[in-house]
Structure formats: C-alpha cells, structure tokens
Design a protein that fits this description.
Length: 353
C-alpha cells in the first residue's frame, strides 16, 4: 500500500490538530460524507487521547435539498454519540434560489456553522477540506479568470465574517491530506460514510472539473502539484501585499476618513508598478464605496482608463466616485445621483486645463 493510501496515524493526527489543544471547544462541520466523517473520527480520537482537550460539537447542516439529507444527519448523530461527541443538526430554511444554488448553499452552511459556534461560545470551526479540494479550487478559480488572490487557493485558517460581536475562525486541518488517506482511515476504523450525489452531478462546475483531475495527474499535474502551485502563489501574494502596504503608507497614510476622500498624487501613483497601483486603487474604492467587494475585471478596466487618460475624468465603481485631476486622484463615496449618471461606460468629461 502506498503512503497516499495509508490511514492517518495518531501521531499525524496530533500534528494536524496542533495549536487547538487549549481552546474551550471546537465546532466540527460533519456532513456525513467520507471527508467530514474522517474529520469527526480523527478529532474524537485526538481529543480522547489528551488529558485536557477542547469540547467537540459535530454540526450537520441539512440544506433541505435531498430526501436523504435527514437520514444522513441521523447517521452522523449516531456515530458522534458512539465517539462521545455532542451533535447538532441545523436546517437551511426558506426559499432556495433557482440559480447559483451551490454558492447559496455554501454561504448558508457557513452562516449556520457560525451560529452554532456562537451558541456554544466557541470561536473555531473545523472543516474537512482536503488536498484534492485545494486542487479543485485552484482549477475552478483558474477557469473563472481569478487573480493571484484566488489562485492562492484556500487558506488553512481564516476569520469568518459573523455580522456580530466576536471573531470566529475557520480552520482546515486536513488541507494537506489526500482524500484517499481519509477513505483508508475510515476503512481501518470500520466506519461507513454517505456520498452526496451532487459531487458527481455534471450540472455543477466543480463536479466536471473533478473528472479532469485523473487526466491532469497523468500529465504530472496532480493534486499535490496544484496545491504546491497555490502555496507558491500565496507566498508571492504575501510579498505583493507587503509592497502595497508600503505604497499605502507613502502615498496616502491613514487612517483614511470614513467614506473618503482618499487622495493620491497623480504623478507618484503613475510610477507605481501596475499590480501595486491596481491593488492600492482597489483598497481605496472598497473603503469609500458601499457596494461590497470590487470585481477584479472592472477594477482593471478603471485602472487602465486612469493610466491612459490624457485629460481629467470621473468614473464610479462599487459605490465610489473616482476623479482624476491634474495633480491628484480622489476616491470618495459616490452621491446617489452620480451613480446613475456616471459609470465606467460613460463618456470622459473634459475639464478646462
């Protein structure tokens, strides 16, 4: 048996959960599929072997999309009870969207998991994302034309927006483990798991990309190679953000006024490397605007317009008004009347020189 097919050893599990020992408790996201069931088994085994360990609560989200979901949640509950882990099932209620269903379900899942963490007074949620999931994520984002932030893949830990008091951190302890090893772990433990048929449904992009992985692996681009690519992008991404922080401090030191205006000297901004200038502009638009995250393609279009403009102009993006003058670029909250009148597709408004 190859290393990739061996069950996860106890010493490996200790390393996977290192740093979580002193926490009050952990929420385990357990759908009942092989990956999350392995997470439940490994976490229970790890906690049981320690004199002092966090309390574990396994949480299953029933999205109400499949008839078998309730039965699978009950199976998780029985396994959790056998392992000495408390279990909760939370349901996604309300009308389901006709388009973008998987993304809506994902957002609902994290919202309900965050609710479970808040109810328990815990600050950490563990999910069972694997090395294979990381590879699929990189391919998915590559197909969607993502920038470096997206191609860096999933982080091993990141804060979740809760919309309320208290920070909740999402932790992915299995991100470096191949799925095959989790299957082997369940087999060794004599534990069964369910399979979500949507994982093989060709209507969903991720399912279609998943079928490409074996062919890519035969060409040398396997899951580990894609994950290694993501790690290198993440390293480059960290370096770029360090440079953007320095440019931020040099051109427009904070704190920035709420809603702006944020001002950059036109000449100094023009001399920034393109990626640095693009990101600094994006920070200002996000800060001053009120329409959420800035779409990369629209931000790139605005940035190129500013670079190539030979006269003064105004544009709006994501609820921010960007004005290019002779000596400075100003980014501020766009008045409501401006949002309809000025857009990225609008004409350049000339001003007297």
């Amino acid at each position: 048996m190859s290393t990739a097919e061996q069950a996860v050893r106890d010493d490996e599990a200790n390393a996977l959960f290192r740093g979580l020992d002193d926490l009050r408790g952990l929420i385990l996201a357990v759908s009942g599929g092989p990956d999350s069931t392995a997470l439940l088994v490994l976490a229970a085994r790890w906690a049981k072997a320690r004199k002092r360990a966090p309390k574990l609560v396994a949480v299953t989200i029933d999205h109400g999309l499949r008839a078998d979901a309730a039965r699978e949640a009950r199976a998780v509950e029985r396994l959790a009870r056998r392992l000495g882990v408390r279990h909760r099932t939370l349901r996604w209620r309300g009308t389901k969207p006709k388009t973008g269903l998987q993304e809506a379900a994902r957002l609902a899942r994290y919202r309900l998991l965050a609710q479970a963490a808040a109810d328990a007074g815990y600050a950490h949620i563990l999910t069972a994302h694997t090395l294979d999931d990381q590879a699929e994520t990189v391919l998915f984002r590559l197909a969607r034309g993502s920038g470096l932030v997206g191609l860096a893949g999933m982080a091993s830990a990141l804060p979740l927006p809760t919309g309320g008091a208290g920070a909740i951190v999402l932790v992915r302890p299995l991100l470096g483990i191949p799925k095959a090893r989790l299957y082997a772990t369940l087999k060794a433990a004599g534990v069964a798991a369910s399979e979500d048929p949507s994982n093989r449904d060709p209507r969903f992009t991720r399912a279609r990309l998943r079928t490409l992985l074996p062919a890519l692996a035969r060409e040398g681009l396997d899951a580990r190679g894609l994950a290694r690519f993501a790690a290198r992008v993440r390293r480059a991404e960290s370096t770029i953000e360090f440079v953007v922080d320095a440019a931020h401090a040099a051109l427009a030191p904070g704190p920035w006024p709420e809603r702006g205006p944020v001002n950059f000297e036109t000449a100094r901004f023009a001399h920034l490397p393109a990626e640095v200038g693009l990101r600094l502009l994006g920070r200002a638009v996000t800060h001053a605007g009120d329409e959420g995250p800035v779409e990369l393609a629209k931000l790139e279009s605005l940035y190129e317009t500013l670079r190539q403009a030979e006269t003064r102009l105004r544009r709006t993006l994501a609820g921010a008004l960007i004005t290019l003058g002779r000596d400075r670029i100003t980014v501020e909250r766009a008045p409501a009347r401006r949002r309809a009148a000025i857009g990225l597709a609008g004409k350049i408004r000339k001003r007297p020189q």
